[in-house]
Amino acid sequence: MSLKNFEILCELGKGTYSTVYKVKRLTDNIIYALKIVRFLSLKDKEKRNALNEIRILASINHPNIISYKEAFFDEKSRSLCLIIEYADNGDLYQKILHHQKKGLYISEDYIWNLAIQITHGLKTLHDLNILHRDLKSANVFLTKDGNVKIGDMNVSKISKDCIMHTQTGTPYYASPEVWKDIPYDFKSDVWSLGCVLYEAVTLKPPFRADDMKGLYRKIIKGEYCPIPKVYSNDLSNLIEGMLQVDPSYRFTCDQILSLPLIGKYIDNKTEGSENVLMQTIKFHKKFSLISRNLPEANYAESRPKRNKSTNMPNLRKDSYLIRNASEMKNRKSLGKEKIEAGKFIDKYYVQDDNKIILLPKVRRIESKKSAKILLPRKDMQKKEILTRKTSNNSSITLCVD
């Protein structure tokens, strides 16, 4: 894969060592976001951060996290390229600026929608022991169909003991623990979420000052202006619970989602997803070695097609023998013509037209032979060995050639 497979439409943003573009993939004409990282310009720590972002995004499949599509090295530009989902309605910071210019508050229902969806996304990260560490309005992405997605995992960190020590993040959204340079945990992200929601409500960050010393004093004391009266006490209390200076009194994501007042706003259709953190992408001096360890592409057509009637992988029409029913559920593909088995097996199952049929005990299947070649028991000397009727009155026969 290379940049030749994409048409660059416009620039979305630019950082010190990376640029994000809106692109069209030529093979499917779908719009994506492309992040080009000038890898050779990075220090080793920054290179590991770039690879860590890919690792985290590729590990998670959740509606409130920007989804990973592909990563590769472009040999011509000597850059690391990350293809991710494109959010077609911009980011929350842009929306706040728009409302500032018009002098209009964002509706309360929309704020609740933000709070719940961002919390779901954060909980997904926290369940994998991942701290985002840079949650801010510019990293909350919006889609035209109402979805809210967390992105930009460049400084996110995986913590074995759930405790972090490194000072990082954007000052306006950083928790008191980060400012004090003391150990912090997942609740530091919840503080940042409180800052994001406060900014969405008032159209300004909660803590503002003329210099860093003044900002530090306000944050460690938790001094911010009251939320406008146009919003409910419930919303005010929610944000207040996130902006507790003492982390022991601050909400967790689980506590937020369990609050009774959240119940009437939660979409019950929101589904959890099982995510498994992939292994660390090892950093090598040679590009080729890093490229070899990058996750596989995750475009829609690269996923296995499913049979709608059974939610099982599509099978050939042939019948296949498998050792037991549980193995059938666990194997990614049942379409293997050759199998290996031990000398004595108690039960066999045959798969035909997506129905599982239990067959009587057979003495042996010869190793690495077709499933049609069976050694019959002594009491079964005829060419036809086993015949079973299915529900549609068709039969399945296993024969010896």
Task: Give a description of the structure.
By secondary structure, the protein is α+β, with helices and mostly antiparallel strands. The protein is built from 11 helices and 20 strands. It has a 5-stranded antiparallel beta sheet. A 3-stranded antiparallel beta sheet has the order 12-14-15. α3 packs antiparallel against α5 (187-202) and α5 (187-202) packs antiparallel against α7 (233-242). The longest helix is centred in the N-terminal third of the chain and has 20 residues, at 108-127. It starts with 5 loop residues before the first strand and ends with a strand. 29% of the residues are buried. It is an enzyme of class 2 (transferase).
Proportion of residues in helical segments:
25-40%
Question: Gyration radius, to the nearest Å?
Answer: 28 Å
How much strand? 15-25%
Count the DSSP helices: 11
What is the annotated CATH architecture of the domain at 90-264?
Answer: Orthogonal Bundle
* Assigned CATH superfamily of the domain at 90-264: Transferase(Phosphotransferase) domain 1
- Label the overall shape: globular
In spatial order, strands of the major sheet run 1-2-3-5-4
Mean of the pLDDT scores? 76
Low-confidence stretches: 280-284, 304-389, 396-401
Strand element count: 20
CA distance, first residue to last residue = 48 Å
Q: What is the CATH fold-level name of the domain at 90-264?
A: Transferase(Phosphotransferase), domain 1
CATH class label of the domain at 90-264:
Mainly Alpha
Biggest sheet features: 5 strands, antiparallel
Secondary structure class reads: alpha+beta
